[in-house]
Design goal:
It is built from eight helices and seven strands, in the order E-H-E-H-E-H-E-H-E-H-E-H-H-H-E. By secondary structure, the chain is α/β, with parallel strands linked by helices. It has one domain: 3-Layer(aba) Sandwich (Rossmann fold), CATH 3.40.50.720. The structure holds NADP nicotinamide-adenine-dinucleotide phosphate (NAP).
């Protein structure tokens, strides 16, 4: 049974792998056996992730890419194909967070979040699905904020992440039966990262105490384990789902 969770011989693209959860996905999926192609805008930080992946003994290609550009997304998938000849898994992790009160949010601020979190997820999924073979897996990183609120004004972020759930469902419907590509979504709760560092002092602790059944933030490896499951043949009969990894936040 444990063999089903292995990713040996698979090529995985992780976007937003220059910090936070993307670094954990890249390293963890490499530990499960995959070769990695990592993308983000900060090339210097991607090099640090590349070194971490290569330290596991796996191969890694780092490609500077802005996911809000469909051309960059095509170029990232093409670079993976030219380096490794295949793309088996996409972890659509790149994302930006904002907390702007709705009456003050400018069209440009709102559009920027949608451009990266929703549109970027779609451009990457399209670019990869065009080259993926049957048996491949796309994992979109949503958020519990696609399902609920958490005390901050996050209209743009919540809308983008709710959109990711709809996108996941529809792409699964279009691609799983016809092309053999499973499409699922992970909805993280609270995990420490550069994104959460920007929260006001005490917010994370307060929210965790009030809303998370387990009373603590998640360890990135607890999220990575779910990604290994969805990336691997262990989840071969699962498509179109949004899986919360949130310590019970969504049941409070
Ligand atoms: P983070 O540390 O801020 O990482 C975000 C990553 O996305 C960075 O690597 C950043 O790289 C990349 N990125 C941002 N804009 C991009 C663009 N236009 N093109 C390519 N890459 C871009 O935050 P994180 O917490 O790890 O977030 C990772 C994902 O998890 C996001 O989708 C986020 O919404 C989701 N999430 C996080 C939490 C949490 O508690 N941490 C909870 C729910 C969901 P560059 O700046 O180098 O481009």
């Amino acid at each position: 049974m444990l063999e089903r969770f292995r990713l040996d011989g698979k090529v995985v693209i992780v976007t937003g792998a220059s910090s936070g959860l993307g670094v954990a996905f890249a390293r963890g999926l490499a530990e499960a056996g995959a070769d990695l192609v990592i993308g983000a805008r900060r090339a210097d930080r991607l090099e640090e992730t590349r070194a971490l992946v290569e330290a596991t003994g796996r191969r890694c290609l780092a490609v500077r890419a802005d996911v809000s550009s469909s051309d960059d997304c095509e170029a990232l998938a093409a670079a993976a194909m030219s380096a490794f000849g295949r793309v088996d898994v996409l972890v659509n992790n790149a994302g930006v967070g904002t907390a702007v009160p709705a009456l003050r949010e400018t069209p440009e601020e709102f559009r920027q979040v949608i451009e990266v979190n929703l549109n970027g997820t779609y451009w990457m999924a399209q670019a990869c699905a065009r080259v993926m073979r049957p048996g491949s897996s796309i994992i979109n990183i949503g958020s519990v904020l696609g399902e609920t609120t958490a005390g901050l004004p996050q209209a743009a972020y919540s809308a983008s992440k709710a959109g990711v759930v709809g996108l996941t469902r529809d792409l699964a419907q279009q691609w799983t039966g016809r092309r053999g590509i499973r499409v699922n979504c992970l909805e993280p709760g609270f995990f420490a990262s550069e994104m959460t560092e920007s929260y006001a002092e005490g917010y994370l602790e307060r929210m965790t105490a009030q809303r998370v059944v387990m009373g603590r933030a998640g360890d990135p490896d607890e999220l990575v384990a779910a990604a290994v499951f969805l990336a691997s043949d262990a989840s071969s009969y699962i498509t179109g789902v949004a899986l919360p990894v949130d310590g019970g936040l969504l049941i409070t």
